[in-house]
Structures are given as C-alpha cells and as structure tokens.
Specification:
Blueprint lengths: L1 H15 L1 H8 L2 H10 L8 H14 L3 H4 L1 E7 L6 H11 L4 H21 E2 L3 E10 L4 E9 L4 E8 L11 E6 L6 E2 L6 H12 L2 H14 L7 E5 L2 E5 L21 H13 L4 H6 L5 H14 L12 E2 L14 H10 L10 H15 L3
Parallel strand pairs: 6-10
Antiparallel strand pairs: 1-3, 2-7, 3-4, 4-5, 5-6, 8-9
C-alpha cells in the first residue's frame, strides 16, 4: 500500500500539482476509491486510518519534492497534529501567521465535528494535509460505539467560506442517524442567538438556564412562563420529534462546570459564533445548553437533519442516503487511470483493475 500510494501520488502531483492532490484527498468518493485501489475493503471503516497512515509513510522523506505535507493520524497521533504543522512551518521557514492559520483550521475542524455535528460519533482520527501553496484538507473519522459504525468527515480549504456554516466537502457514513447539525444553513438563527445570549451577560443567561433546570422534566407539554419582562414558551417538542435528543437528558442541576464555562464566555463577549466555539473549554455540552435555551425558550429552531451525503457502499448504490452520482464516479474512475503511468509491475496494474470491478459493477 505504501509503495503503490507513493507512485499514485507521484504521478498525480507530476500531472496536476500538489494542490490537486489536496483537493482529491478532500473528495470522499475519490478517497474511498483510492483506498480500494490500494487493496483495502471498500466497506471497511479501517480504510480511513490505514490509507492515511500509508500515504503519510509514502510521502515520508519526499515532502519537499512533492510539495505535500501530512500531519496527524489515529488516536494519540492525532493530538500531535499542531506540533507537526509547527515543525514543518519551521523547516520550510513559513511565515508564523501562515502556520498559526493552519493550526487554527486543524483545531477548529476537529471542534466543529465534535461540537456542532452532534451525531453520536466520537472523533478518534484526525489527519491534516497541506501543500506548499497553502491549500489544506482534513480527513477525520468518528466511531459510534453503541452500534460499531464509523463516519468520515472531509474538509477542503478552497470550498470553505465559513468554518461554522456548511464547511464540509462531504461526510461519508455507514448509517444515517438523528443529528443536531449546527453547521446547517437552517441553524443560522440558533448560532446567532447563542452568540447573543453569551454577549448579553451571565446573569440573564443563567436565568434561562434556571428555567430549563426547573422544567426540562416536563418538556412535552406546552408551558407558558414569564422570566422578568420577557415571555418564554416551551414548544411541544415531542410532536416535533425532538424528544430523542440528549439535550433533554441533560442534568442541568449538577452542571457547575458548565456554569464556569458560560461565565468565562460571557465575560469574553465573543464577536461571533466561530469565536465562541474556538474558546478553550467550550465543548459539546456548552453548545447543547445554548442550543436548548435558544430553541426551547426563544423558538430558534436548529437543524436535526443528518448531513451525511455518501455511504461507504459506493456512495449510495442502494439509494441511501442518496442515489449514486454517476458523473462523479465516472470522473473518479477516469482519474484513477493515471495508474497506467505508475512505475509498478504490469501484474500489479492488472490486480488494481480487478479491485476496481466491485465499484464499477453497480454502475
């Protein structure tokens, strides 16, 4: 896998340049197809961790020549990503502002997929790819321990206009699941109101939290409340299929750590939602609390639509979550014919073609 990955990467970069390689890595379909070419099962979650590790090893010692740099990996290795980026920045004499920006984007992509896409998948793998020209991509994966399924998240710098709103180039999953998706455009009001709540001060926010502490055990009923001068109203959450979400299982009565984090964020008065999310200590529970206040008390509805766009099974050959995008797959297959230019034995090229057949058959 390492030697073949090295050859495919070499040919691709020679033909199209390092930025195109970064762009391809950020494409869930191409990434999955590349894993299949390198002899990994198309429907195995281990493809992500093995493929990124193989590519990292394939480029080792050839980073300057290729113009592509790969940081991070699985488990403890993922936590070394910022240090690896900084090391490359020093080696390449990159401006400190550029390095800081790369580190920030790496950290924020992990935080967004942990805090703003609350889908039941715990992130355990994070790889950060960047080129000498500044293009970057993120490939990270989460595991749902209750059903032992995996989900992979892809990011590409050129496609991102806002780190907290629709930032993904694709999310590939084995299943669709109920999700609190605060990256959705439909969640814009929730993001804005959450920021306003924090900027409004700790005292006012805690009054709302106290309301939740008192009434979350009976949220299926319509309860009109009055908090100071403002009218607050619990919506009929059960009828709106909100009852399943962990938001309603929070024990706000024992959330003293949450209070400290909220006090810290209120004091900082972040200018926007991205800055709020980026603050140290702000995690999934803080985001859930602000979301619950925004929706239950002020009526700002967040999105609960699963953002996954592809399945591990050939991008949805069974129509789930979406039908196969034939044009995308045709382009991917055509692109992978670069293998013919790789400096590998003809027998290995024939073996690669046979491994591609399971992808081609459904089409």
């Amino acid at each position: 896998m390492v030697s073949l990955g090295r050859e495919i990467g070499r040919v691709l970069i020679e033909e199209y340049g390092p930025d195109e390689f970064i762009k391809r890595i950020a494409d869930p379909v191409w990434f999955q197809s590349l894993g299949t070419v390198l002899a990994f099962d198309w429907n195995a979650s281990g493809l992500t961790t093995i493929l990124t590790a193989a590519l990292k090893e394939a480029f080792r010692g050839r980073e300057r020549e290729s113009g592509v740099f790969i940081c991070g990996g699985k488990g403890k290795t993922s936590r070394k990503t910022p240090d690896e980026i900084k090391d490359w920045g020093e080696t390449l004499s990159l401006p400190s502002s550029n390095v800081d920006n790369l580190v920030y984007n790496s950290r924020m992509s992990a935080k967004v997929d942990s805090c703003l896409v609350q889908d039941g998948f715990q992130i355990y793998h994070h790889s950060f790819f960047f080129s000498k020209n500044g293009s970057w991509a993120v490939v990270q994966q989460g595991m749902n321990t209750s059903n032992q399924t995996a989900r992979r998240y892809h990011w590409f710098s050129e496609d991102i206009k806002d780190l907290v709103c629709e930032p993904h180039s694709g999310i590939i999953s084995q299943i669709k699941t109920p999700t609190l998706n605060l990256t959705a455009t439909e969640s814009e009001e929730t993001r804005g109101l959450s920021t306003e709540l924090v900027r409004g001060g700790f005292s006012g926010l805690m009054k709302d939290i106290q309301i939740l502490r008192k009434y979350t055990s009976d949220t299926s009923q319509m309860i009109a409340l009055r908090s100071g001068e403002k009218e607050a109203c619990f919506l009929n959450l059960e009828d709106r299929e909100f009852f399943w979400h962990p938001l309603l299982l929070e024990d706000f009565s024992k959330s003293r750590y949450l209070e400290r984090i909220l006090a810290k964020t209120c004091e900082a008065k972040p200018e926007n939602y991205e800055r709020l999310l980026s603050m140290e200590g702000v995690g999934p529970k803080t985001i859930r609390a602000l979301t619950l206040v925004s929706e239950v008390i002020y009526g700002a509805k967040a999105s609960y639509e699963d953002p996954a766009r592809y399945s591990f099974a050939h991008g949805g050959k069974d129509g789930t979550p979406y039908p196969v995008d034939r044009k995308t797959y045709d382009l991917t297959i055509e692109f992978l014919r670069l293998i013919d230019k790789a400096k590998i034995p003809q027998s290995e090229k024939r073996a690669i073609s046979s491994r591609l057949k399971p992808i081609l058959q459904p089409l």
